[in-house]
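Lecture notes, continued. The same structure-token format from the folding unit now serves as the input rather than the output. Read the line below as a description of shape only.
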């Protein structure tokens, strides 16, 4: 029964393999698989809980169905692309840190005050009543705090028959946060050495390293914040699938801990800005996505001024000594707010 505790992790890796086979970069594939896995966890918890069926066999069937679905979607063997760098000293040190924290997570029982106060007791109550509804308790945190990390811990507890894998939720989130940090550094233009440096700084952060082998939820919050940031920064040049991933990560962030809403506020504002850009058909997004100059919606009276402006901004005019001129007042008067911003830029 203990071996079945690895079933959720196996389903996550199978989904990552499916995404790799569809051309995803390997870090993107793992991050997307984590988003799918958390959605599967929440959906299964709520559905089975509504039926008072949060027991061993229903949860086993739920994750077996997820693994079977991932296998059914697999089309071809995955091809790993976008490696960080050739394995060297940095990779060996990171592997040593991951192995050390994994041994601690597996061999040391949960012993922090928060874990023993409400993280683990609420899982025991849920297991006894076979659903995640409220229960009688004198500890308010057991029924009031966001429950996402405990949902995952509950599934591992039901599949393994105990709390042997209770610390693995934070450990997996620690590894995911390192992947998200390296992916974020790459998106911001860092070289491979810079990506390794970013991973090293994130991995050796004292609080993160210590909590990677605990049954709390702070590292889970850090992981979803990093993942949400990665996908949010791509919204201006990506489609609805990226927006869905960013929204999933932001929802998981809020469902993990209350402070996630505070740290996720800037990410939410960026998502709202990107959504506004989509609703107004922002010319910047159209240019980045298609590589073509967006069509102007200015009136016919303002088109000559717009043509003169584009001529002044052309490479030929610049080589001849011309500069980039701004739109005239008549041109700005006939454009929408989004077009005014594009003209001024």
């Amino acid at each position: 029964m203990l071996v079945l505790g690895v079933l959720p992790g196996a389903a996550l890796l199978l989904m990552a393999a499916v995404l790799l086979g569809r051309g995803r970069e390997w870090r993107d594939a793992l991050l997307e698989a984590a988003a799918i896995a958390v959605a599967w966890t929440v959906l299964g918890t709520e559905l089975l809980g509504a039926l008072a069926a949060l027991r061993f066999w229903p949860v086993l069937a739920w994750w077996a169905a997820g693994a079977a679905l991932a296998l059914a979607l697999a089309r071809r063997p995955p091809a790993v692309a976008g490696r960080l760098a050739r394995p060297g000293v940095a990779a060996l040190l990171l592997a040593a840190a991951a192995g050390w924290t994994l041994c601690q997570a597996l061999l040391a029982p949960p012993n922090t005050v928060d874990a023993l106060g409400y993280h683990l007791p609420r899982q025991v109550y849920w297991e006894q009543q076979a659903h995640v509804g409220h229960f009688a308790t004198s500890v308010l945190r057991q029924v009031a705090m966001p429950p996402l990390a405990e949902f995952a811990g509950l599934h591992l507890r039901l599949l393994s028959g105990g709390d042997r894998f209770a610390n693995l939720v934070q450990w997996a989130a620690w590894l995911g946060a390192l992947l998200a940090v390296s992916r974020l550094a790459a998106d911001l233009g860092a070289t491979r050495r810079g990506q390794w440096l970013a991973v090293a700084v994130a991995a050796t952060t004292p609080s993160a390293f210590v909590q990677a082998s605990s049954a709390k939820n702070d590292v889970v919050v850090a992981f979803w914040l990093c993942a949400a940031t990665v996908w949010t920064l791509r919204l201006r040049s990506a489609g609805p699938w990226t927006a869905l991933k960013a929204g999933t990560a932001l929802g998981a962030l809020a469902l993990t801990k209350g402070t996630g809403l505070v740290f996720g506020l800037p990410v939410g504002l960026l998502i709202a800005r990107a959504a506004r850009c989509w609703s107004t058909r922002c010319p910047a997004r159209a240019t980045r996505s298609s590589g073509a100059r967006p069509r102007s919606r200015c009136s016919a009276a303002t088109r000559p001024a717009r043509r003169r402006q584009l001529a002044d901004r052309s490479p030929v005019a610049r080589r001849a000594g011309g500069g980039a001129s701004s739109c005239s007042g008549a041109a700005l008067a006939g454009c929408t707010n989004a077009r005014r911003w594009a003209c001024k830029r």
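Point for the exam: Confidence is low (pLDDT under 50) at residues 81-85, 284-301, 314-320, 322-345.
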